[in-house]
Design goal:
The complex is a heterodimer of chains A (217) and B (237).
Chain A lengths: L4 H42 L3 H15 L3 H14 L6 H26 L3 H9 L4 H31 L11 H12 L3 H30 L1
Helix pairs in contact in A: 1-2, 1-4, 1-6, 1-7, 1-8, 2-4, 3-4, 4-6, 6-8, 7-8
Chain B lengths: L1 H39 L5 H16 L2 H14 L6 H26 L3 H9 L4 H31 L11 H12 L1 H33 L24
Helix pairs in contact in B: 1-4, 1-7, 1-8, 2-4, 3-4, 4-6, 6-8, 7-8
The chains are: A mainly alpha (217), B mainly alpha (237).
C-alpha cells in the first residue's frame, strides 16, 4: 500500500475548510464560554455563602470527572427526549465550553490564591469596595499570572474538539472519517488531519512554554 | 422506569468493568512509557533526547481521537492489524505516556541537587543511584499528576466505542432505546463519577504511603487538579 498524492490532494481542501470553519470555530466559541463561565464558577466556589460554594464545588467536581462523550450524549439525546432540542454543533460547543469552564475555574482559583496577602490587606487599608478590590487590584494580577495555564487549557480543548464526532459534528476528523468510509482509504485523510492538528498545536504550546518561563523569572 | 433500570444494571456493570479494564491496561502501558521516555529525555546524548522530544511532541500535539482512529483504520491498510484491546492499549499508552514523560522528568529534576551530589560522593553507580536515592524521592511528587492523568484516561476510555470496544459508553448507547435516553445517560454519568471518585481516593492513599516511605507528609493537593495546589486563601476583600 502506497501513499496516493492525488487522493491526498483531493481531501486536503475539504479538511482545511472543516478545520478552519469548525475545529477552530468550535475552539473559539467553547473557549470564550470556558473563560467567562470559569471565572463565575471560581468566584462561586470562593463565596462566603456555603449554599453557593458547596454546590459549585460539587458541580465542578462532577463535570470534571465524567467523560465528554457521555455529556454530549446526555445533552444531545437525553435533553432532547425531555423536550430541549439543540443542534449537534450547539451541543458540542456548550458541552466543551462548560467542561473546560470547570478546568478554567481551577486555573482562576490557583491564580487568585497566588495573590500575596498584602494586596488584600492594602485594599482593606485603602477601604476599597469589594468590587473595586476585585476589578482594579486582584483580577488584573490574576489574569497576568494565569495566561500560560489558561492557554494550555485552550490547547487541550482544541485537541478534544474531535470528541464531537460522537454526535456527528462536521469538524475535521469527522470529515476525514467520512472520506475514509466512502473510499475505504483512511491513510491519507487521517494522516493529513493529524498533521494539521500537530501544525496548529505545537507552535502554540511552545509559545505557552515560553510565556511560562518568562513569568517564572 | 426503576424496573427497567434494574434490568439494565448488569449491562451497566459489565460496561463499567470493561471501561475499568481498558483504563487499567492503558494506565500500565502509559506508566511504562512515561518512565522510559521520561528517563530517556534526561539522557546525556542529544540524539536520544532529540528523538524522545519529537515522539513526545508528536503524541501530545495530535489528538487522541486521531491516534485511535489511525491505529484502528490506517495500520490495517498498512498490513498491521490489532485487536481492539491492543489498539486501545497502544493508543492510550502512547498518548498518556507522552504526557506522563513530562511528569517523570519534572519530578526527577525536582529532587534537590544535594541528593545527586551525595550519590556521586558515595560512589553509587548510575542505576543504583536512580533506583535507591532519586526515584523514591521523585515518586511521591509524581503521584498527584499521575492521578490527574488516570482520571483523564478513564474519561478518554469512553471514546473506545469508536473502535468497537463494548465499554460503558457503548453499553449505554445500546440501552438507551430500552430505558430512555435521559435515565440511561444520567446513570452513566453517575457510574463514571463514582469510579472516578474511587480512583481519586486510591491515588490519595497511594500518595500518602509513598510519601511516608521517604519520611514526608503528603502536601494538601487535590489530585483531580491539573498541577495546581490547594493553598489557603489570602482572606476576603
Amino acid at each position: 500500500m502506497t501513499w496516493r498524492w492525488d487522493y491526498a490532494r483531493d481531501v486536503l481542501p475539504d479538511l482545511l475548510v472543516a478545520f478552519l470553519q469548525f475545529t477552530l470555530g468550535i475552539t473559539l466559541a467553547a473557549g470564550v464560554i470556558a473563560v467567562v463561565l470559569g471565572l463565575v464558577l471560581a468566584l462561586g466556589r470562593r463565596s462566603d455563602n456555603a449554599w453557593v460554594s458547596r454546590p459549585t464545588f460539587w458541580l465542578i467536581e462532577f463535570i470534571r470527572s465524567t467523560p465528554i462523550p457521555i455529556q454530549l450524549f446526555f445533552v444531545y439525546f437525553g435533553l432532547a427526549s425531555a423536550g430541549i432540542r439543540l443542534s449537534a454543533l450547539v451541543t458540542g460547543i456548550l458541552v466543551l465550553g462548560v467542561h473546560y469552564a470547570c478546568y478554567m475555574a481551577e486555573v482562576y482559583r490557583a491564580g487568585i490564591d497566588a495573590i500575596p496577602k498584602g494586596q488584600w490587606e492594602a485594599c482593606t487599608a485603602l477601604s476599597l469596595s469589594p468590587q473595586r478590590t476585585w476589578r482594579a487590584v486582584i483580577l488584573p494580577q490574576v489574569v497576568r499570572r494565569i495566561v500560560p495555564s489558561a492557554g494550555n487549557q485552550i490547547i487541550a480543548l482544541f485537541k478534544e474538539t474531535p470528541f464531537l464526532i460522537v454526535v456527528g459534528v462536521g469538524e475535521m476528523v469527522y470529515v476525514a472519517q467520512q472520506f475514509g468510509s466512502a473510499t475505504f482509504r483512511f491513510t491519507e485523510p487521517l494522516t493529513i488531519a493529524g498533521l494539521i492538528f500537530l501544525a496548529a498545536s505545537y507552535p502554540t504550546s511552545v509559545l505557552m512554554r515560553r510565556l511560562e518561563a518568562r513569568l517564572a523569572q | 422506569m426503576l424496573n427497567e433500570l434494574l434490568d439494565a444494571a448488569p449491562f451497566f456493570l459489565r460496561g463499567a468493568g470493561t471501561s475499568l479494564l481498558y483504563t487499567a491496561t492503558g494506565a500500565v502501558a502509559a506508566l511504562v512509557i512515561s518512565f522510559i521516555f521520561g528517563l530517556m529525555s534526561m539522557s546525556p546524548s542529544i540524539w536520544v533526547r532529540g528523538t524522545v522530544r519529537v515522539v513526545v511532541e508528536f503524541f501530545r500535539g495530535t489528538s487522541l481521537v486521531i491516534q485511535l482512529l489511525w491505529i484502528f483504520y490506517v495500520l490495517p491498510e498498512l498490513g498491521i492489524r490489532f485487536e481492539p484491546l491492543a489498539a486501545a492499549t497502544i493508543a492510550l499508552g502512547l498518548n498518556f505516556g507522552a504526557y506522563g514523560a513530562e511528569v517523570v522528568r519534572g519530578a526527577v529534576n525536582a529532587v534537590p541537587k544535594a541528593q545527586w551530589e551525595a550519590t556521586v560522593s558515595l560512589g553509587l553507580g548510575k542505576v543504583h543511584r536512580m533506583r535507591r536515592i532519586i526515584l523514591p524521592q521523585a515518586i511521591p511528587e509524581m503521584i498527584p499528576p499521575f492521578g490527574n492523568l488516570l482520571i483523564q484516561m478513564l474519561k478518554s476510555s469512553s471514546l473506545l466505542f469508536l473502535i468497537a470496544v463494548t465499554e460503558l459508553t457503548y453499553q449505554v448507547n445500546q440501552l438507551r432505546t430500552d430505558i430512555g435516553s435521559l435515565p440511561a445517560f444520567i446513570t452513566a454519568l453517575i457510574v463514571y463519577f463514582v469510579i472516578a471518585q474511587g480512583l481519586i481516593a486510591f491515588m490519595r492513599l497511594w500518595e500518602k504511603r509513598a510519601a511516608a516511605k521517604v519520611g514526608r507528609r503528603p502536601k494538601p493537593v487535590d489530585v483531580t487538579m491539573q498541577g495546581t495546589m490547594a493553598v489557603p486563601s489570602g482572606g476576603a476583600g
